Amino acid sequence: MRKPTFKVGLSEQPLYARCSATALVRAGYLTALGTRGDSFWVPDHLASLLPRSVMTTKHVGAARWVPRPDAHLEPWTVLGHLAASNRLGRLRLGIGVTDAGRRNPAVTAQAAATLHLLTRGRAILGIGTGARESNQPYGVEWSRPVARFKESLATIRALWDSGGDPVTRDSPFFPLHNAVFDLPPYRGRWPEIWVGAHGPRMFRAAGRYADGWYPVAMMLTRKQYTAGLDQIRTAASDAGRDPSAITPACLFFIVAGGSRDEVDEALASPAIKAFTLNASAQTWLRHGMSHPLGEAFSGAQDILAPEYDEQTVLSATAEVPQALLKECFVAGTATDIIDQVAEWRDHGVRHAVIGNFSAVQRSARRGVAAHIPLTKILRGLRNL
359 with 62: CB under 8 angstroms? Predict the structure, then answer.
């Protein structure tokens, strides 16, 4: 039997659920396991990228079971719990992605190395610049996020490569003074670092330091993905690294249903339309619209979703066109979604991670029923 070369993962929000704190994330993990997935991911947020004002039972049927949209469990703890309570299966476990500056990079290096040891070599450290709303409201410095990100990666690599010897390193953000990092790698290998990069400076950093590239599909067109991958591989070659060793991955937010009519109805839900605020002003402009948050708005990196009241959100997204929604989400029946991800494969993607937004709609019944096409999608993608 031909060994699959296309890898598939599932990302689940680690939200507190009414029936059990880990019910949602555990259900996602078991889905990934049951569909023979390759990886399971949780993001690292302190607050949601969806405005809490529309994540209510008035607009989202599933809110009756997940009533606190900003109640994110701490992701490293969650993955450690999953690793300890599920001895079967060999899913790789990833943070997708953590902030470079909110946590000191020495702490991030420790957390990732610990998970790698606990899982016998299955941890992935996904890392990016982070988002304003998980930093600025909590008193964390938010200036120069890309420069801070690059220094964070360099610090993590320096500690991992130290062999336990004290490290002294100058840095404008994270200076080290006889810093000791003595955790060992698992069988000589540290966790892979996957970088959430969406622009030229981040591409260069990914080429220099990363083992995988992990952007969000809604932030790039397919042609931009191909061009970005070329830039990353060039940067890797310039740094004396093997460009082909960098895994080209991508996170896809999906809205699935049993029919296209069901999917169109789900896309019309206020909460799903509100997620388009996370797209950049440039993306909105491609569809002939000005971004409600300003013509220079960069998207998810700068959104402060908890600040937006219900009326503001509903008014801002009332006229969102289907074309914009379908750029932010891979939407359709199971067959539709598999075909669309296949197009991204043709542009270089080799590890697709699915973030399921299908439950963020008015109908709780259809949100639950969307689990059926989700499983078909995860199984079908393995055959690409």
Answer: yes
